[in-house]
Amino acid sequence: KNEVSKEDFLRVAKDIVGDQMLRKAVELMQEK
C-alpha cells in the first residue's frame, strides 16, 4: 500500500499554500 500520512500531506499542503501566498505578496509589492 502506498499511503500518504496525514502529517506528510499537511506539510506539503502548507508548502504549496505558503508558496502561493508568497507569490501574491511579491506581486502586490511590485505593483506599488
From TrEMBL:
<feature type="domain" description="RST">
    <location>
        <begin position="1"/>
        <end position="32"/>
    </location>
</feature>
<keyword id="KW-0539">Nucleus</keyword>
<dbReference type="InterPro" id="IPR022003">
    <property type="entry name" value="RST"/>
</dbReference>
<dbReference type="Pfam" id="PF12174">
    <property type="entry name" value="RST"/>
</dbReference>
<protein>
    <recommendedName>
        <fullName>RST domain-containing protein</fullName>
    </recommendedName>
</protein>
<dbReference type="GO" id="GO:0005634">
    <property type="term" value="C:nucleus"/>
</dbReference>
